[in-house]
Design brief:
It catalyses: AMP + ATP = 2 ADP. The protein is α/β, with parallel strands linked by helices. It is built from 14 helices and 10 strands. The structure holds adenosine-5'-diphosphate. The site of adenosine-5'-diphosphate has 17 residues, from helix 5 and helix 6.
Length: about 290
């Protein structure tokens, strides 16, 4: 098992040194991430400064792990609203790039539509740009979804940010495939829906799972699209790659005491309150709407 070497309370000069070393070892790096104004670095320095002055100001720097279709986007996005920190999904950044007419999009389409991982250089470039834009808007903290996905990405992240918590969402593989195949996106508002109606019996002592479909409102129905990588063949390839490349991250974060394992008990109405409980959080708004 590859291990992450943690730098103990690194000084900013050692961090910039590491960034330079890291990026000089990456080939064909786009301009944005070779910049000495690394958003990761700025974010790191800002967070540690504030935390030193007042621990209340400590940024949320969380990571969501989990197989394709498990619901990382759904729960990370809900938590980001609750905690007022940005939800940054590298899959969304890749899809935005795909939808643009940029020079990268053709190259990316071929990789993504086969269920393969995009190179670290491209992902770091997209992530770096996104963090910089957020920094300019005054964002602090983040909930990362889809990054890191490899041990190398985790090593890079570890060197520039202080991750507090890694939430690992878990669901049976047969359910994951059904959920990916049922996934639909409204091409106008961008919201995610799911047509799959899951009702699987328990096996080997684990309970059955019931998940109602998440149907779109009538104004979205005619605008629904399916992701090109949500075909059965590609989903199975993504699951294979997840098990091979991303699964080892669980052990890395488990050994650091940062991993929160969460078995989804069902759909959103059942899972959300239990996830909040596991995280020791309260959703006041939801409580009030339940009372009203
Ligand atoms: N951290 C990453 N490293 C490499 N490729 C990534 C990364 N994040 C996203 N991608 C690319 O974008 C695609 C879609 O990502 P995502 O929406 O997170 O998918 P999934 O539903 O499989 O979790 C991935 O299959 C991969 O090609």
């Amino acid at each position: 098992m590859a291990a992450i070497t943690r730098l103990s309370t690194p000084s900013s000069s050692s961090i910039s040194h590491i960034w330079r070393r890291l990026y000089s070892s990456l080939s064909s790096i786009p301009e944005t991430i070779t910049s000495s104004q690394s958003p990761f670095l700025a974010k790191f320095n800002n967070a540690t400064d504030l935390a030193r002055k007042d621990p209340k100001h400590r940024n949320v720097q969380w990571v969501f792990l989990g197989c394709p279709g498990v619901g990382k986007g759904t729960y990370a996005s809900r938590l980001s609203t609750l905690l007022a920190v940005p939800h940054i999904a590298t899959g969304d950044l890749v899809r935005e790039e795909l939808a643009s007419s940029g020079s990268l999009s053709l190259q990316l389409a071929e990789i993504v539509n086969q269920g393969k991982l995009v190179s670290d250089e491209i992902i770091l470039s997209l992530l770096s740009k996104r963090l910089q834009a957020g920094e300019d808007r005054g964002e602090s903290g983040f909930i990362l979804d889809g990054f890191p996905r490899t041990i190398r990405q985790a090593e890079i992240l570890e060197e520039v940010a202080d991750i507090d918590l890694v939430v690992n969402l878990k669901l049976r593989e047969d359910v994951l495939v059904e959920k990916c195949l049922g996934r639909r996106i409204c091409s106008q508002c961008g919201k995610n829906f799911n047509m799959a109606s899951i009702n699987v019996k328990g096996e080997n002592g684990s309970p059955g799972i019931i998940m109602a479909p998440l149907l779109p409102p009538s104004h979205c129905v005619s605008k629904l699209i399916t992701r090109a990588d949500d075909t059965e063949e590609v989903v199975k390839e993504r699951l294979r790659i997840y098990n091979e490349t991303s699964r080892p991250l669980e052990e890395v974060y488990r050994s650091r005491g940062k991993l929160l394992e969460f078995d989804l008990p069902g759909g959103i109405p059942e899972s959300w309150p239990k996830l909040l409980q596991a995280l020791n959080l309260d959703d006041e708004e939801e409580k009030q709407s339940a009372v009203a």
